[in-house]
Amino acid sequence: MNSRSRNDDDCDNCKNQRNFGPTIIKCSCPSAITIPAATVAGTTFTVSSLTLNTSCLCDPAIKLEFASNLVAPVAFTGTINFQVFKLCRGQTTPVPVGPAWTFNLVALLSSQTFSFFVCDSDSCFDDCCTYTVVATVFVTGGDDDVDDGTISINNATLGVVAT
């Protein structure tokens, strides 16, 4: 017979390590936008957003996860940058969170998923912030328009885990 003995000190250590305090898990509602043909380069689109109240957390660590499905019914060529911004109480200008994520599209004629995550550990105690994902369209050719078809950003969802 195989039996394992359990050390009560090990259980106490596990209990102590798991006591990190409250955790917030929140997701935005899925959204969709269509970027039409002949969109001017540099045009921005708000893709997803959510508001997070971290007043119950002390020195919060926040992980933001974005996921979407890019669909092009007609061949689309161009570049889309995705960037997370936050706007907290008392601020008038959104602040970027993490780097911009670039998706290069060379004649996309179908659908493809696109996701990324960033961490925000620069939040103040007792803060309520709105996080927004903004897509900025750029072109790969020499003209100023994205004129090679349309693209839809479907099921765009922003999720957050904060502790």
Structure description:
- Strands 1, 2, 5, 8 and 11 form a 5-stranded antiparallel beta sheet that branches.
- Helix content is 7%, strand content 57%.
- The relative contact order is 0.36.
- With 163 residues, the protein is mainly beta.
- Strand 6 and strand 7 (95-108) form a beta hairpin.
- Mean pLDDT is 81; it is low at 1-17.
What Rg, in angstroms, do the CA atoms define? 21 Å
Order of helices and strands: HEEEEEEEEEEE
User: What structural class do you assign from the helix and strand content?
Assistant: mainly beta
Portion of residues within helices: under 10%
* Main β sheet profile: 5 strands, antiparallel
How much of the sequence lies in strands comes to: over 45%
**In total, how many beta strands?**
11
Categorize the overall geometry: elongated
* Low-pLDDT residue intervals, each spanning 5 or more residues: 1-17
Average residue pLDDT: 81
Q: Compute the number of helices.
A: 1
Distance between the termini: 43 Å
Which terms would index this structure?
163 residues; mainly beta; four-stranded antiparallel sheet; 11 strands; 7% helix; 57% strand; disordered N terminus
Q: Quick summary of this structure?
A:
With 163 residues, the chain is mainly beta.
List the helices and strands and how they pair.
Layout: H1 8-18, E1 24-27, E2 31-35, E3 39-40, E4 44-53, E5 62-71, E6 76-88, E7 95-108, E8 111-120, E9 128-138, E10 145-146, E11 151-162
